[in-house]
Amino acid sequence: MNILVTGAAGFIGSHTVERLLGLGHTVYGLDNFSPYYDIDLKKMNVSAIKKAGAHFIEADLRTDDLSKYLPSTLDFVFHFAAHPGISASSTFKDYVSNNILATQRLLDYIETKSRRPFFANIATSSIYGLEATLTENEVPLPASWYGVTKLAAEQLVLAYARRGFFKGCSLRLYSVYGPRERPDKLYTRLIACVLQNKPFTLFNGSEKHLRSFTYVQDIIDGIVSVIGNEEVCNTQIFNLGTEEENTTATGIETVEKLLNTTIDILPHPARPGDQSRTKANIDKARRVLNYNPTTGLEEGLKAQIEWYKGRFL
Ligand SMILES: NC(=O)c1ccc[n+]([C@@H]2O[C@H](COP(=O)([O-])OP(=O)(O)OC[C@H]3O[C@@H](n4cnc5c(N)ncnc54)[C@H](O)[C@@H]3O)[C@@H](O)[C@H]2O)c1
Questions:
Q1: Using a 6 Å CB cutoff, which residues line ligand 1?
Q2: Which of 16, 92, 155, 174 keeps 20 to 30 A from 143, CA to CA?
Q3: Angle between helix 248-259 and 297-312 (nearest 10)
Q4: In this structure, what is the dihedral angle of CA atoms 308, 47, 84, 105, given to the nearest 10 degrees?
Q5: What's the 13 CA to ligand 1 centre distance in angstroms?
């Protein structure tokens, strides 16, 4: 199949491209190298996906004419491109333009096609709000610009699917970690601090936060399981993540154990909108997609540490 992966230079998108290539698909990876974090890291990811056989397209979903870059037929779209996370240096416009407007422009492009691809939207547990423990049927209560704009993007995609313009679904991911994790996220920051002998900035109160820390390959198992299940997935939302909950303090202790060290903590004011608890309720994904994440935190973090050492030391 011809598959478009947006956000292909990023953390989860680049892994997904590699998995899809391994499954024998022709993959078009698109990204604008947004400056949200170090572009060199994204370029390294793009080198890896090109080496694996992907076609890479540098384009901005908000402004570029997609018909110039994409093949005339696409069978599937996995839409990862977004302004992610909760960041004090990001503006409301960053979230609105990259999460809502960029999604609408991609939908506008797809609407011009007579044969339309299946559209798998990548959403987030932040849609649920400060406590993300709910099933897909419950009312979302986002508490950040990120959560609000990702909810809007998800509902845009599902609106098209409900109207029958194409078949599509939305996948709400929970706290993903592993090799290539973004530099602003917990485990890459922790590992970098230890290996560079620097103190770790901990947002006040976050040591008690509970998270469904989910290994990236377990997330991708769920994402690609939509292929072949298009009918049953159409218009549906699925939570994807592990049911195993760990506190941030446990995450820190696990990194300390694996690197045989004690991390020097530097307290920092709490981030508004940060979730106090995420616990993936994956009953629906288990039932419909046979989804079964299996990687434990220690095993996943070992792989992330090895990746970090291989790339940066
Ligand atoms: N990392 C997580 O724990 C997590 C959890 C839940 C959901 N998600 C979702 O997964 C997706 C990927 O997240 P990630 O952590 O890999 O982030 P990432 O920042 O590494 O990847 C996103 C990519 O999208 C690209 N992009 C942004 N705006 C674009 C635009 N206008 N046009 C083209 N490309 C654009 C960026 O350059 C980046 O490479 C996002 O949709 C995010 O909301 C991530």
A1: 6-7, 9-13, 31-34, 36, 42, 60-62, 80-84, 98, 102, 122, 124, 150, 173, 175-176, 182
A2: 16
A3: 60
A4: -170
A5: 7
Residue 312, pLDDT above cutoff 80: no
**Whether pLDDT at 86 is above 90:** no
Establish whether 146 is a catalytic residue. yes
Q: Which domains does the chain have, with CATH numbers?
A: 2-177+214-242+284-289 (3.40.50.720), 186-209+244-281+295-312 (3.90.25.10)
Summarize the confidence of residues 70-80 as an average pLDDT.
95
* Half-sphere CA count of 194, side-chain side, radius 13 A: 20
C-alpha dihedral (58, 63, 69, 73), degrees to nearest 10: 120
Nearest atom within ligand 1 for CA of residue 175: 3
46 falls in which pLDDT band (50, 70, 90)?
Answer: very high
pTM over 0.85: yes
Q: What is the mean pLDDT of residues 106-117?
A: 94
Task: Give residue 313's pLDDT band: very low, low, confident or very high (50, 70, 90).
Answer: confident
The contacts of residue 228 (CB under 8 Å, 6+ apart) are none
